[in-house]
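pasting for the record
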Amino acid sequence: MGLGLAISALAVTGQGSRTLLAVEELQIAPGSCVAVKGPSGAGKSTFLFACAGLIEHALGRVVWGDTDILAMGPEGCAAFRRRAIGLVFQDFLLFEELSALANAALPGAYGPASIQRSIRLRAATVLERLGIAPTGARTVESFSGGERQRVAIARALAGNPQVILADEPTASLDRKTADALVDDLVRLAREDGKTMIAVSHDPAVHERADRVIEIIDGQIASDTVHA
């Protein structure tokens, strides 16, 4: 089951002490799919990176389950991310010269042999669920944008994290491909009971989410739960 999120008194500042994000109180239930929308520069990605513990100048509490990631040191926070959070980026961040399975199994690359095997098996299973053949030597250099993002999603899920954080996962895709990807991403999250937060301008992501949070000027402007 996914982890619940509780945020309180979160403040992120940039250069010149400018406030980039301020969230007084927010709770997200375990296993829910949440979309975050808002204009460019509003603080959406800052919010997502704070949820991942990737922001240096952040104060307050960001608690996944019973773990306050802002109270941990960099090493502890990185270890928690590896264990509990799968990240999906709009630019895929794949190794072009590697196969789909080699890319998807990368989270286990530096672990012991037993961990490498289990992650490789799970990566292959997720690739199949996403319609990507895990066998063969074909490199991702020849893949379409939609195929690449599916490989990136499989990589994020290969370690069986409790949380998926996605930053504009459909931004590089055409409408038809984006719709199919949203369906697959939300389906996988719900089938596996994971908590998902997706920052996106894409209305298709908003429509499929259980809840839509709007951020404007670094603050939560609206919070809508879908029936």
